[in-house]
Design a protein that fits this description.
Blueprint: E1 9-10, E2 21-23, H1 27-32, E3 39-40, E4 59-62, H2 67-78, E5 83-86, H3 89-95
Parallel strand pairs: 1-5, 2-3, 2-4, 4-5
Domain Rhodanese: 15-102
InterPro entries: GlpE_sulfurtransferase, Rhodanese-like_dom, Rhodanese-like_dom_sf
Pfam families: Rhodanese
């Protein structure tokens, strides 16, 4: 596996507003705000929940800033699953003015 800069990635501006993203953040981060079409699987649960991955490839993986999702992309690619990292994570999604879904009682903080 090469250095992180060789990781397949995509910019938030190249994704549809309702893109099906794999969000690997923790539950409280997910509750505070997420892409409307995202699928939530906490990073540590990925190996036992491969059957819950979005049914399309490449799988676009997102976290808060791109670090955890990058690790997940590396792991998925090693399993033969086509995955790409969302550059900048939900911070970039939020900064780009993309739509957010969230739990009603959670603060919208990226």
């Amino acid at each position: 596996m090469g250095p992180m800069n060789e990781l397949p990635s995509v910019s938030v501006t190249d994704l549809a507003d309702d893109a099906v993203l794999l969000d690997v953040r923790e539950d409280d981060e997910w509750a505070a705000g997420r892409a409307p079409g995202a699928v939530h699987i906490v990073m540590n649960e990925i190996p036992v929940r491969l059957g819950d991955l979005p049914d399309l490839e490449p799988v676009a993986v997102i976290c808060r800033s791109g670090g955890r999702s990058g690790q997940v992309v590396q792991w998925l690619n090693a399993q033969g699953i086509d995955a790409i990292n969302v550059d900048g994570g939900m911070r970039a999604w939020f900064a780009a003015g993309k739509p957010l879904a969230g739990d009603d009682d959670a603060p919208r903080v990226m």
